[in-house]
Write a structure and sequence with these properties.
By secondary structure, the chain is mostly helical. It has nine helices and five strands; from the N terminus they run H-H-E-E-H-H-H-H-E-E-H-E-H-H. Strand 1 and strand 2 form a beta hairpin. Helix 1 packs across helix 8, helix 2 runs antiparallel to helix 6 and helix 3 packs across helix 4. The chain is globular and about 50 Å long.
Length: about 240
């Protein structure tokens, strides 16, 4: 992994990632990461309570968005993909569908014909102008409403409210020697990456943020991330 980019300045105060980036550039990593049982139990209890509250209070919103996806671009309403979870276990990750049906083929052709898009994809794993996204898909991605089905992932124990963003199968090698940090906790609906610039950060910086989150895991910092997420989503910072 290379040195981190200047985007690190977007990281919230109190979440310095310079030490983590130093570990990454040297290829070093801690192994056998363990968190206190009380912390793990408390975090899981909050996850279950929050997921149940969401479905009880906002189930109508879940249904409404599903109907809009169906009307605007047909079925299927939900999109799922295999992602890595805690301990490296693969699980089925859900979102409201925001892309066209043949998105993989469209992306491949777009990257072949557009060198700048290829550079951006290689560095960020995201595109400013993504030809795969539908009109309604742009709205639900901008507002993060496409993420709501992940409350089901939280309820079933595959994910947490707060944690590293779920890693795609083809992105595992981007974590390098820091893979054990990712596997130490459940991936989250939101996390330090989302409140630190989100898609404005390189993937390298995202990995460093995940390392720092795992090494400093606490209830207080989870609460801080939760309230920062509300502000980021409301303001639309860093979304694509």
């Amino acid at each position: 992994m290379g040195n981190l980019h200047p985007e690190e300045s977007l990281v919230p105060q109190g979440w310095n990632i310079s030490d983590a980036s130093g570990e990454m550039s040297r290829g070093g990593s801690q192994t056998g990461i363990h968190h206190p049982a009380v912390l793990r139990l408390g975090k899981r209890s909050v996850d279950i309570a929050a997921a149940l509250f969401f479905f009880a209070a906002f189930g109508w919103l879940f249904v409404l968005i599903g109907l809009f996806v169906l009307i605007s671009s047909g079925s299927p309403v939900l999109y799922y993909q295999s992602r890595y979870g805690k301990d490296g276990r693969i699980f089925r990750f859900y979102k409201f569908r925001s892309m066209i049906a043949n998105s993989a083929q469209v992306l491949e052709e777009h990257l072949k014909s557009n060198p700048e898009a290829r550079r951006q994809w290689d560095e960020y794993q995201k595109l400013d102008d993504d030809p795969r996204i539908t009109r309604f898909g742009k709205f639900i991605r901008k507002t993060s409403l496409d993420e709501l089905p992940q409350f089901w992932n939280v309820l079933t124990g595959d994910m947490s409210l707060i944690g590293p963003r779920p890693c795609m199968l083809e992105q595992r090698e981007l974590y390098g020697q820091n893979w054990s940090h990712y596997c130490a906790v459940r991936p989250g609906i939101t996390g330090l990456w989302q409140v630190s610039g989100r898609n404005q950060l390189t993937y390298n910086a995202r990995v460093a943020l995940d390392v720092r989150y795992v090494e400093t895991l606490s209830v207080g910092k989870d609460v801080d991330i939760f309230f920062r997420t509300i502000w980021v989503v409301a303001a639309g910072h860093g979304s694509r």
